[in-house]
Amino acid sequence: MFKNQYLSLFFVGMILSACSGAEENLSDDLSGNEPQVEEAIDHHSYSNVRDVRTSHLHLNLNVDFDSKTISGSALHSIENITKSKTMVFDVYDLKIDKVILDGQFETTYSIGEKDELHGAPLTVDINENTKNVEIFYSTDPSAQGLQWLNPQQTSGKEYPYLYSQGQAILTRSWIPCQDTPGIRITYSADVKVPVDLMAVMSADNPTEKSEDGRYSFKMDIPIPSYLIALAVGDLEFEPLGERTGVYTEPSMMDKCEYEFVDVEKMVNTAEKLYGEYKWGRYDLIVLPPSFPFGGMENPKLTFATPTIISGDRSLVSLVAHELAHSWSGNLVTNATWDDFWLNEGFTVYFENRIMEEIYGVEYAEMLMQIEFEGLEFENEMILKGDHPEDTKLKLDLEGRNPDDGMTAIAYVKGALFLKTLENTVGRVKFDEFLNKYFDDHKFQTITTEIFLAYLDKNLLKPNKVEFNTNEWVYEEGIPNNCIHIHSDNFDKVDEKCQKITSIYSALELDVKREDWSTHEWIHFIRHIPAEADADDLAMLDKEFHFSNWGNSEIMAEWYLVAIEKNYDKIEPYMEDFLIHVGRRKFLEPIYGELAKTKQGMELAKEIYAKARPNYHSISYMTIDEILEWDSI
Length: 632
Ligand code: BES
Ligand code: ZN
Hints:
Layout: H1 2-19, H2 23-33, E1 52-64, E2 69-80, E3 86-91, E4 95-101, E5 105-106, E6 109-111, E7 120-125, E8 132-138, E9 146-149, E10 161-164, E11 185-192, E12 198-201, E13 214-223, E14 230-233, E15 236-239, E16 244-248, H3 253-259, H4 263-274, E17 282-286, E18 295-296, E19 301-304, H5 317-324, E20 332-334, H6 340-359, H7 361-384, H8 408-425, H9 427-440, E21 444-446, H10 448-460, H11 469-474, H12 488-498, H13 518-526, H14 534-544, H15 552-564, H16 571-580, H17 584-594, H18 598-611, H19 617-626
Parallel strand pairs: 1-11, 16-17, 17-19, 20-21
Antiparallel strand pairs: 1-2, 2-8, 3-7, 4-5, 4-8, 6-7, 9-10, 10-14, 11-13, 12-14, 15-16, 18-19
Helix pairs in contact: 1-2, 4-5, 4-6, 5-6, 6-7, 6-8, 7-8, 8-9, 9-10, 12-13, 13-15, 15-17, 16-18, 17-19
The protein binds ligand BES and zinc ion (ZN).
Ligand BES binds at residues 167-168, 293-297, 318, 321-322, 325, 344, 403, 406, 585.
């Protein structure tokens, strides 16, 4: 309700100013009505940040693998804007022991009713002069934002492992905090872990294990709560360049170093495009395979899945993506999860620019066409489903899991909106605009409406460009003026695809594995003609070994066609893949495809019974739904 009121005010403002004529007046008049970030409402946080907010957080934590808990305290230095008598934090299944004000006074607090999605509000009684609030607490062993791995689930099989995942609203399951992207805080931490393990955070990090398992961290640059992150394991560090490096388990290190040769170059390239990298170091940690995402842009330390370690450096666009978030997302942050496209759409656009710069325009076009085809497919699916409005860039996720917004709409429709704008005004002007956008909003949070007003004022009006911005942002589907994405490389692949009918043997295709890049092979698999049957797939598999190719993207794509065409030779390979890999992007379509038939569903359940204990809650919650799995 609020949003509509506010929007209509904004548009009335625009019309009034437009009527007033002169360009100068226009911006003056507009300024009175310009959208403000304070007006944004985050439906996914209970916190009262308009009244009182954390400015700095100090964590004092002990990580205990036996009980699978983190315990200690979160010391919040606060700014009491309205002299509020209470401060509200978000918590999810945290056990609160006591709350101390200003290091001296134990205070009263209450925990509201828990709801499955948001957790509960923790309301602490403070007074107008309170400077800090220290919450003593411990986490629940099933905390959704933490995954505790036993040694078997790691690469080295010798030590346990722990990592956190905060985005979107899971930080509250391991830190009592104002868990909204709408405010930024600095943080520091003293963390105690078992001797033999190293702890790293989204902060300045150690490069060697400490003698006593104690580590101290500092993040002096203000960040939103979803970017606080921790990983603990048998880790090593190797530099990749002057300001880049990689953390991983010893047995993964050589492969990671090989894969990431271009990371330093990526940082330099990104800086040339959109301005200084503001975070000091850019390191990566390659996690065990249960990590539910491809990557997570935790500042200074990207968390990444080992499924990008393909041995041929073909999946490093993921690094470009997470690195790009150092500008879009981490420097300029979406104010609410309804504005998620501001994080991801800008990042996909930026990622593609980095890839183009380093690997050439043809390579970048292949990547974009694959994304575009994914968008067309998902857009259709969403339009046919219960929430067609999810195809708008600006979302309304009130009462829903913010993860529901993690679709190709935010990512690819968002990026194509920017690409179409670029195509309209020209690259030079668009790059100037983006540089200024990042600079003008650095370390701020931003709403869609603020961006649109800024776009209008700084790009469209000065260049006298008419653009269907509202259609792109507030209407469903993909607008007709969407830039056309076409990769010439894929035309050649298409020619080969047409030949796969039963009368052709795979050999007659006259291609070898090494002739094509991963992306050409993905395109090939996706475009195997509808008439091809299980025998055709068997022929292809014999020649190319798709079932155990080794590259996760290619295998996942292949399993989908194989399931559809009943090519059952994939089963042992697919089972192995599903048991070891926890990345939701792969699991969701494979289980989804299996669940389409009775026989497939049986197989899916048989595999899932073995695989589920390896998955992160983010992944198993999605798959539980697909398989109608009763987890109790
Ligand atoms: N920030 C996202 C991951 C995310 C989004 C986690 C929403 C939780 C909620 C990250 O940058 C991302 O987009 N990862 C992608 C990879 C990327 C190359 C598209 C992924 O994990 O697949
Ligand atoms: Zn992203």
